[in-house]
Design brief:
Elements: H1 3-14, H2 19-29, E1 34-36, E2 38-39, E3 50-51, E4 73-75, H3 81-87, H4 97-102, H5 109-114, H6 121-128, E5 131-132, E6 145-150, E7 153-158, H7 163-183, E8 202-205, H8 216-220, E9 224-227, H9 247-250, H10 258-268, H11 275-300, H12 317-323, H13 335-356, H14 365-386
Parallel strand pairs: 1-5
Antiparallel strand pairs: 1-4, 2-3, 6-7, 8-9
């Protein structure tokens, strides 16, 4: 059952109506909805100000509401919020029902037909008839004012939050973090895949226990939106440790790869060994190599010839070629890449055993050759790119 059909049946059941009856009643209320992009109630619940900002196709180069493609919100009384929430439903593709209707998407017709709703012409007509909030010519005392200098005088401006930006940010963050959870869930088909995650957010709530009094958009997220951190990164002054004996042991941080080895082990223990699992295993191995190469590039940024210092006399030659820019010309040869490949494969297997301990699976000659080949391939690609 699709999201749309499930939603309509659930709402109809609450009202003790058939799906077609509920749909007809919802259509009758659509005329009470108005499109809006800015809602004064986000600043003060007593505000009566709504504003609609037209999209500017001629992008000015500034990051402003008119230049971005975001969700529309609805200014609507709490008594008529049902049709607005219906149009803001997120379907399987991550887009709202409103967008599908505006594009006259044929794919949604089948779900409506299963509910006995055989024509969508009245719905298309009702959506096209939704008005935009008229531009307000003045502010009000509930909203904060900003004195903006213009020539010898000033304009008194009101700053309104763009509800569409808040709602779109919330939806995209939920999608990114939701996929991340699936990638870490061993029961999910997405388990083990590469993913991203957004941290250090702040949740902000609107409308207290009655977010429907703010706007339909914020009601669809139960009154909660996210504020993303907009602070510059904190950069430490810690210098790079130059390798003296063993690069992988001295310079590649344990905390940067332990979680990847743990995820890799879970993939090894999976009962099913289909193509999807095999690709996930290869991706985790690539993740470990990426961690290694990041440390490698950090050392290469140091002054060329650093490995000729007396303190680095015990560093193997193949590691000097790999890490020191003074030996860059020697990276064209294959012998050092062979040595790095063997070196990485031995280190990888050793770290896996050390992290997983007794539960580990056994690595054979075939696995050793693959790890070696994978590292050599990365180094060969690097040499071709830099040549």
């Amino acid at each position: 059952m699709g999201i749309l059909r499930e939603y309509i049946e659930k709402q109809a059941k609450k009202k003790k109506k058939t799906s077609a009856e509920w749909f007809a009643g919802m259509l009758a209320s659509l005329s009470e909805c108005r499109f809006t992009t800015h809602v004064g109630k986000f600043t003060d619940p007593d505000s009566k100000i709504y504003f609609y900002c037209n999209k500017d196709d001629n992008c000015s180069g500034y990051v402003i509401t008119g230049n971005v493609d975001v969700e529309l919100d609805f200014a609507v009384s709490a008594n008529f919020i049902t049709p607005a929430l219906f149009l803001l439903q997120i379907l399987e593709d991550g887009e709202t029902l409103l967008k599908h209707i505006q594009e006259k998407d044929e794919n949604i017709k089948a779900e409506f037909a299963e509910l006995g709703i055989n024509t969508l012409a009245p719905l298309y007509q009702a959506v096209e008839g939704i008005n935009k909030v008229e531009r307000s010519q003045k502010s009000e005392f509930h909203l904060r004012q900003v004195y903006f200098p213009v020539g010898d005088g000033y304009h008194l401006l009101t700053v309104l939050p763009a509800s569409g930006l808040l709602l779109t940010a919330r939806r995209r963050v939920d999608r990114i973090n939701g996929y991340s959870r699936l990638c870490h869930d061993s029961k999910s088909s997405e388990y083990g895949k590469s993913c991203s995650r957004i941290f250090d957010m702040v949740s902000i709530n609107f409308g207290s226990g009655k977010p429907q009094n703010i706007s339909a958009g914020i009601q669809s997220y139960y009154g909660e939106a996210y504020l993303l951190e907009s602070l510059p990164p904190v950069l430490g002054n810690k210098g790079v440790h130059l390798t003296k004996y063993n690069f992988l042991e001295e310079n590649v941080s344990y905390k940067d790869y332990i979680a990847t080895f743990q995820r890799l082990h879970k993939l090894f223990k999976q009962d099913r060994k289909n193509q999807q699992i095999r690709e996930a295993i290869k991706n985790r191995i690539k993740d470990v190599i990426d961690v290694v190469m990041v440390s490698c590039y950090q050392i290469r940024e140091q002054k060329a010839g650093w490995s000729d210092d007396e303190c680095c006399k015990n560093l193997p030659v193949f590691q000097k070629i790999w890490l020191d820019e003074a030996y860059r010309d020697k990276r064209e040869s294959e012998s050092w890449r062979e040595e790095v490949g063997r070196y990485f494969a031995r280190w990888f297997i050793y770290k896996y055993k050390k992290i997983i301990k007794g539960e580990r699976v056994s690595f054979g000659e075939e696995e050793f050759r693959y790890l070696k080949w994978k590292m050599i391939k990365i180094l060969e690609e690097e040499v071709r790119y830099n040549s």
